[in-house]
Design brief:
Elements (H helix, E strand, L loop, with lengths): L2 E6 L13 H7 L5 H8 L5 E3 L2 E2 L11 E7 L17 E4 L3 E6 L16 H11 L7 E2 L8 E7 L2 H12 L4 E9 L9 E4 L2 E4 L2 E7 L7 E10 L2 E8 L6 H8 L12 H6 L13 E9 L6 E5 L4 H7 L6
Parallel strand pairs: 8-15
Antiparallel strand pairs: 1-4, 2-3, 2-4, 5-6, 6-8, 7-8, 9-14, 9-15, 10-13, 11-12, 13-14, 15-16
């Protein structure tokens, strides 16, 4: 599905209405790269000035309207099968689709999961509206992790959101129910431990000085007997980072099948209500709308299974 970005030309800083070209406006005012502009140049009606196709070397005047194509009709996920199933939509606009993923669902096709993923559900949703979009998740959640997933509907939105992740403007906050009673001191605690593959188990990661740098922050929100609810943010995005770091300080996630051994040995957490998955949920996402600049924030309430395991207040 085509997507155009519209730029209203304003007076430049030198008050010279003839001092800028279309390309300079696209670079300075719209923030497009040379590659993005070059790609648009070769699209039919890829760059328009006041509704008429133009060269990027043409001069502009205050009040001129420049439209540039940032997504062609041919850029779709036509190869993906649609899966008609529930899609819990939190937000949608021309550039973004934000959904709440249930636990047990893979984000994007991989391995044996080719037509039963969140991406397949998104494809079916778009096709049901008569739309075709390339499916571009901005970060992925593990199969058993529930919570917010952001899809970009076009290439420009995707590239800008990835840049926001690098600049820490795209902020994701997780909730986890962990084994044991952490002090509810209201402070944010930092875990900085390198993470690498476990040589004895190809499915697991471990804290190791030979691993990749990893930094996590956690704060205790609630504490119950043998359980604590924590919020977490990450400076890095290593595989299983939250699960490994919390297990490393002696408080693995409740229900974690890979890193929960400490919980079973040192706590009665496993004796009561349990879950078949690690209790991890992508709770909040804050980002800048990549084409309009609006600050957006989304919240997905904690799922029932985590409330039950944690014996916690519902509705957080």
């Amino acid at each position: 599905m085509e997507r155009y970005l519209t730029i209203q030309v304003i007076q430049n800083e030198n008050s010279d209405p003839t001092g800028l070209t279309v390309e300079q406006i696209l670079r300075k005012q719209a923030g497009l790269t040379k590659r993005q502009i070059s790609r648009a140049k070769f699209c039919p009606d890829g760059i328009l000035k006041n509704g008429i196709q133009c060269r990027v070397t043409e001069m502009v005047f205050p009040g001129d309207k420049i439209c540039v194509c940032v997504e062609e009709k041919s850029e779709t996920s036509a190869h993906l099968e649609g899966m008609a199933a529930e899609l819990n939509i939190l937000y949608e606009d021309e550039d973004l689709l934000v959904v709440n993923k249930p636990a047990g669902l893979v984000t994007h096709p991989q391995g044996v999961h080719y037509d039963d993923t969140l991406a397949n559900r998104a494809v079916a949703y778009f096709r049901g509206k008569g739309e075709e979009h390339a499916i571009r998740p901005i970060g992925r959640l593990d199969k058993d992790t529930s919570g917010i997933v952001v899809f970009a509907k076009n290439k420009l939105a995707a590239s800008r959101l990835q840049k926001q992740r690098e600049q820490k403007l795209f902020q994701k906050t997780y909730l986890a129910v962990v084994c044991g009673e952490l002090p509810a001191d209201g402070l944010t605690h930092r875990i900085e431990e390198a993470i690498g593959p476990d040589p004895h188990d190809r499915l697991k990661m471990q804290i190791t000085p030979d691993g990749k740098h990893a930094v996590s922050y956690y704060r205790v929100l609630e504490r119950r007997k043998d359980r604590s609810l924590v919020s977490l943010t990450l400076d890095t995005g290593r595989t299983h980072q939250i699960r490994v770091h919390m297990a490393g300080i002696g408080h693995p996630l409740c229900g974690d099948p890979l890193y929960g051994e400490i919980c079973e040995k040192k706590s009665r957490c496993s004796d009561e209500k349990t879950t078949s998955r690690a209790c991890l949920h992508a709770w909040k996402v804050k980002l800048v709308q990549p084409l309009t600049g609006e600050v957006l924030e989304f919240v997905a309430g904690m799922p029932e299974d985590m409330c039950s395991v944690g014996k916690l207040v519902k509705g957080i």
